[in-house]
Design a protein that fits this description.
Blueprint lengths: L2 H14 L3 E2 L3 H9 L13 H10 L8 E7 L4 H6 L1 H11 L1 E6 L6 H8 L5 H4 L14 H7 L4 E6 L3 H5 L6 E5 L2 H14 L4 E6 L1 H9 L4 H24 L5 E5 L6 E4 L2 E3 L5 H4 E9 L4
Parallel strand pairs: 1-3, 2-6, 2-7, 4-5, 4-6
Antiparallel strand pairs: 3-10, 7-10, 8-9
Helix pairs in contact: 5-12, 10-12, 11-12
Length: about 280
């Protein structure tokens, strides 16, 4: 374990009184898949997820397929403002984990932590910038285990840029809708052990039209619908595999006017997110 990463992630957990950090996703996925943790990881695997996976899989092996859906800027504040929407995510998933973010609470910094388990001062992205990460990531752990990974995202977004130069197939598209379509196509090809799919519309529209505008709320509803779609598709297509579906946003947001939202501050609105896990046994 990287002690610097551990201490910084713990600092934010202590500040917000959470048991979990967004940096805990990578070690959790590694543990249920029996992969090595990235070298700079300071996050810790989440016992409730690991223990549930062991029970669900009934001792017949580890997780075999993983799908991680990343809706940008959907925080705990949205569960409070739109409880009926996020209740659908929790019903679909089964496990909800309130998690603290990292500073600054902007997309490349947070997804850098989510997919390395490292704190920003260790993974190296400490402002809104999109350099290719040089530290080990979840995707390097998958490659060491000889697993195939696909990242599906809007072109030139953070997830599209900062995880390059790895043994990953990158699908870069122009819209969330096309990413959703590509995710289904890639799933039906059944050629990947882990798929990442990212949605940007809610974040983009909240900056442009406001956190709670009609346009932004429609984008939030689409995120929930996509997650329900991915649950149905993974259960159908990966029916023979032990598989895990995760809802993993990066940060929340807050309004600065009726027509503009932002994030990046060390406040609960920006720093608290929920990660949801759905763990399903294969029909052996």
């Amino acid at each position: 374990m990287n002690e610097t990463s551990f201490a910084e992630l713990k600092k934010y957990k202590d500040q917000y009184g959470t048991d979990y950090s967004i940096g805990d996703l990578t070690p959790t996925i590694c543990e249920i898949n029996n992969w090595e943790f990235p070298a700079q990881c300071g996050g810790t695997s989440i016992p409730v997820v690991v223990d549930h996976a062991q029970r669900v899989f009934e001792g017949e092996g580890k997780n075999e397929k993983t799908f991680i859906y990343c809706p940008d800027a959907v925080g705990e504040i949205h569960r409070q403002h739109y409880p009926e929407l996020l209740a659908r995510v929790e019903k679909t998933a089964g496990i909800r984990l309130l998690s603290s973010g990292v500073m600054p609470s902007v997309t490349p910094v947070c997804f850098g932590t989510i997919f390395t388990g490292a704190s920003p001062e260790v993974h190296g992205i400490q402002k809104y910038a999109k350099p290719v990460l040089e530290v080990e990531t979840l995707f390097d752990s998958a490659a060491k285990a000889e697993k195939k990974v696909a990242i599906i995202s809007v072109n030139n977004c953070s997830i599209d840029m900062i995880f390059r130069k790895r043994k990953v197939d990158y699908y870069s598209l122009r819209t969330d809708a096309r990413c959703r379509e590509m995710a289904e196509r890639v799933l039906r090809d059944d050629d990947y052990d882990m798929i990442i799919c990212y949605s940007t519309d809610y974040d983009h529209l909240s900056h442009k039209t406001g956190c709670d505008s009609e346009e932004s709320v429609t984008a939030l509803k689409n995120c929930v619908q996509y997650f329900e779609d991915f649950a149905r598709l993974t259960d159908e297509i990966w029916a023979e595999y032990n598989h895990t579906l995760v809802w993993a946003p990066d940060h929340g947001n807050h309004p600065i006017s009726e027509t503009s939202g932002t994030h990046g501050t060390n406040t609960a609105e920006d720093m608290l997110v929920n990660h949801f896990y759905r763990i399903t046994p294969g029909k052996k």
